[in-house]
Model the fold of this input.
Amino acid sequence: MRLFAQLNKGNDVNCPVCNHNYKKFLPYGRIARENALCPNCLALERHRLMWLFLKEKTDFFSANLKVLHIAPEHCFIERFEALSNLEYITADLESPLAKVKMDVHKIPFENNTFDVVFCNHVMEHVEDDLLACSEINRVLKKEGWGIIQSPVYNLKETIEDKTITDPVERERIFGQRDHVRKYGNDYAARLRKSGIGIEENLFVKELPVEEIKKHSLPEKEIIFVCKKGG
Done:
């Protein structure tokens, strides 16, 4: 990474998460996407978009907030921990990066504990996504909010079959060996069945084309903003 950063110095792209500039970002993905991974902080396209959304559309960087970050992304952890306005708690079932060992199906915090909950690229892995969302809803405060992202495909409905347990078959049907479902365009409607509120935010569509190109953002990514419901 350090070698790539040295060889790739330039000002064509900028990572808003760490504010480093390059000629281009690294390719990344099972089918490699060009210009995707920041070699400094490891932010991907979706992380850069989320950072900009938090800066421009929320009070995340200024308000006093208690935050639960489930399956925390490497590029965010130290930067969020450094924010003096946050009481920031990371949690995961397996990750050594997280402070709290936690199963998202049974979150070990009281009702109405958190102002903000992040849970990105988790729901496609868990046994019961609606139970997980109901738990997030439970621990959110009345005016609480969060972001729950997952890969969403251009399918009318989510594909799910709990009888498929073979990793090779899961990869064929769901796109990855550790995925248990493949979300379609009903993603938000599906999660709302848990009682949580979900808004589909097209923030990226508000940005100038030049900014999308400069930060190498995902042009069709919907940000799924959750709010306390029920």
Remarks:
- The two ends are 46 Å apart (CA to CA).
- The chain has a mean pLDDT of 95.
- Residues 45-227 form a domain with the Rossmann fold fold (CATH 3.40.50.150).
